Amino acid sequence: MKKIKFGTTNEQVSAVVFGCMRLNKAKDPVEVIQTAYDHGITFIDHADIYGGGDCETIFADALAKTSIKREDLFIQSKCGIIPGKLFDFSKEHIIEAVEGSLKRLRVDYLDSLLLHRPDTWMDPFEVNEAFEALHQAGKVRYFGVSNQNPMQIEFLKKGVQQPLVANQLQFGLMHTGMIDQELQVNMKTPGSFDHDGGLLMYSRLHDMTIQAWSPYQYGFFEGVFIGNEKFPELNQALEEMAEKYGITPTGLASAWILSHPANFQVIAGTMTPSRIVEIAKASEVQLSKEDWYKLYLAAGNMLP
Ligand SMILES: NC(=O)c1ccc[n+]([C@@H]2O[C@H](COP(=O)([O-])OP(=O)(O)OC[C@H]3O[C@@H](n4cnc5c(N)ncnc54)[C@H](OP(=O)(O)O)[C@@H]3O)[C@@H](O)[C@H]2O)c1
C-alpha cells in the first residue's frame, strides 16, 4: 500500500481510504473491513450522517469481530450537516456531533475531523472554540475541511488555531474541474472557468491533502463510469492501459488519482472485497506522465 504524508502532520497514512458511506449496504461488513486492513488500507472515512449514524455503529460492531486494534487504524469522521435542514458549524453542534460519532464508533478519539460542507453562517472563532475543546480533551487529533474553497479555508483560518490539514473533494477521471481550470487558464473555453478558486494549486501550496471522494462516479452520484457504455473511449483506454501496468481498470482509475504529484488520497466506497483488493494493489503503480495525460484526454477532456 502506498503511503502519503497527511497534510502538514508527520503522519504517514494509507493513500487509499476505506469510505464508509455505503457500509450499511455491505453484505458482510466484517469481510470488507478485514480485506481492506489486510491490504494495507488503514485510513477509515466516516461521517456522523452516513446511514443516519448507522454506518459508524456497523463499523464498530464489525471491528469488534476482528482482531484489528483501534490504534492500527486512522479513523476520520465528518460533521456539520443536518440533512435536509441546514449546515451547522456552531460550537454546540460540532462538539455534540463528535460526541455522537465517538459513542457510535466506540472509540475514545478521532484521528481526524472534517467539517463536511461549508456553513455560510460559519464563525471562525466559534469553530476554533469547538476545535480547541475537542483537541484539549484528547478527542480529536487533527482537523480539516471538506468541499471548501481556498477563500473559505482562509476565512476559517482567521479564527482557527489548529492546522487544517485535509480537504475532501469530489475528484476522479470524470470529475476533473480542478485540473481543467489549470490547463485552460485565460481561455474562453468552458473548462477555463474557475469554479473553486484555484483549489488544486492552493492545496499544493499549503500542503493540504486532497481526499478524492466518489472517484468512480460521474456527475453527482449518477453512476459508475467503469464498464459504462456511455464512456467507450475512456473504457477502452482503461482496459488497454490496465493490461500494460498489470492491474485492472478499476485499479487504474484510482492509480490515475494517486499518480498525480499533488499527494492525493483516494476514498474507495466499494463494499465488494475483490474490488478493494484491486484498488489496494494498484496504489503502488505510478503512471507515466504521458499515460496520465492519455487517460485525461480519453475521459473527454481537451488540451488547448
Ligand atoms: N465529503 C463528501 O461530501 C463526500 C461525498 C460522498 C462520498 N464521500 C466519501 O467518499 C467515499 C466514496 O464515495 P462513493 O462510494 O460514492 O465512491 P466510489 O468508490 O466512486 O463508488 C462506490 C460505488 O460504486 C460501485 N461500483 C460499481 N462498479 C465499481 C467499480 N468497478 N469500482 C468501484 N466501485 C464500483 C460500488 O458498488 P459495490 O459496493 O457493489 O462494489 C459502490 O456502490 C464514501 O464512502 C465517503 O466516505 C464524501
Brief characterization of the structure:
The chain is an alpha/beta fold and 304 residues long. The chain has eleven helices and 14 strands. 38% of the residues lie in helices and 18% in strands.
Physical arrangement of strands within the biggest beta sheet:
3-4-5-8-9-10-11-14
Major beta sheet summary:
8 strands, parallel, barrel
Per CATH, which architecture? Answer: Alpha-Beta Barrel
Q: Could you report the average pLDDT, rounded to the nearest whole number?
A: 97
Domain unit count = 1
Bound molecules: NADP nicotinamide-adenine-dinucleotide phosphate
What order do the helices and strands follow?
EEEHEHEEEHEHEHEHHEEEHHEHH
**CATH class type:** Alpha Beta
Write the CATH fold name: TIM Barrel
